[in-house]
Amino acid sequence: MPPPLPPELPSILVVDDEIRSQEALRRTLEEDFEVFTASGADDAIAILEREWIQIVLCDQRMPGSSGVALLRQVRERWPEAVRIIISGYTDSEDIIAGINEAGIYQYLLKPWQPEQLLLALKSAAEMARLHAENQRLTLELRTAAPVLEKQVSHRRASVRQQFALDAVLRAPGSPMNAVCALVKKLAALDIPVLLTGESGTGKELLARALHYDSPRAGEAFVVENCGALPDQLLESELFGHKRGAFTGAFEDRVGLFKQADGGTMLLDEIGETSFAFQVKLLRALQEGEVRPVGAPRPIPVDARVIAATNRDLEAEVRAGRFREDLYYRLAALTIHVPPLRERTMDIPLIAQALVDETQAALGRRFEPLSAEVITCLQAWRWPGNVRELRNEVLRMIALADDERLSAAHLSPRVLRAGDAHEEPALSMLSGLDGDLKTRLEALEARIVKESLIRHRWNKTRAAKELGLSRVGLRSKLARYGLERD
């Protein structure tokens, strides 16, 4: 059971058979301590049984029982109390022999000086406070340990579920199904993997799936963007450094490779590294050890390395910009992540998931995405992939007036679903079949529908934008079957 909270002032029990000594000590201590006095061992024991005493200051020579004998009893029954003995006899063999047995914290000599005595007793009070605090914290941790262990276990399971392959959104027939099947096979194999694909396709998400589906899932997953730092800082980040290794190195730093020891290290944008750094990285991967900057010797590390890049590393090797030996060290097996435009069937799932994620964060509710919105999203080429799709979802949510997310709030380029490098009309015509008349009619139908979507199916505004009367617009709607249910 932990000791009770101490009083506002530290409590001290002065045990001395000489009344004058008791009074002198009381006057010296009463401003900084709550002082109790006793004339002998029996009185002291009685006070200890009813009061919370932090320090026992005891004279050695007393009738009936010596100070060492009393402090021996105190140690057995009240071990948390700090025991100090005071004596005028410097050669007392009893004190010297009893220091360890009675657990005496300090031995003071008479005549004592007030300043020295106060300094010693304040130090003893601080020791008593720290001891009591340590006891309480130990008990709290012991009590909380099962709860904390359960919380950590639940958190780990939640993280594994969040980044498992089942969390990679994909539709039946999606190219991502084959990618995920390959990731599933490779997760259990402790070999390096190279992830390639355009920026924003989800390479880091697949790297996390490789880690959390692997035997290393219980250890750290560490990410470093190799293209974001110059060589010296990147070397320090990955390998660590010793204090004073360079200007600004005020303390030792543990590198990310060491932090990932036993786990997985993702080297993102590996194609952006310099030739000089590639040499150091190759050695670290070959030897299974890293040398912190300024360290006299390397340290071993055991981290699975996954690399990711949006470059064609084979072309970089042929061009002499990437080391061939490092490429083969990183690419035991390569996984290519297809861009979003090659898996349009996944767009509705991903877009709706982004809506659900955002509305949960904002505490708002939105209706499921409409067919109009999905049609527009699937028609766009998404050069920025999932990152660009996320921005479009955020734009719709920011501009929404109610619970319905409207296609009218999409960016003009997404709404038109045109090619960014061609004239919109030419792009739209190139995707149509039939003779010229059929293509022009299909193009007209698209333009009319786009105008209606932009004006949220307000026919008066759409007709005005298109330079038509309401009767003329109604005629075209009937002709092209664009009447909205």
Automatic annotation (TrEMBL):
Key word Protein biosynthesis present: no
UniProt-listed InterPro entries: AAA+_ATPase (IPR003593), AAA_lid_NorR (IPR058031), CheY-like_superfamily (IPR011006), Homeodomain-like_sf (IPR009057), HTH_Fis (IPR002197), P-loop_NTPase (IPR027417), Sig_transdc_resp-reg_receiver (IPR001789), Sigma_54_int (IPR002078)
GO molecular function, one term: ATP binding
Residue ranges constituting the Sigma-54 factor interaction domain according to the UniProt record: 169-398
Pfam families: AAA_lid_14 (PF25601), HTH_8 (PF02954), Response_reg (PF00072), Sigma54_activat (PF00158)
GO annotation terms (biological process): phosphorelay signal transduction system; regulation of DNA-templated transcription
Residues annotated with 4-aspartylphosphate modification: 59
Key words of the record: ATP-binding, DNA-binding, Nucleotide-binding, Phosphoprotein, Transcription, Transcription regulation
Superkingdom of the source species: Bacteria
Domain Response regulatory residues, every copy: 11-125
Protein name from the UniProt record: Hydrogenase transcriptional regulatory protein
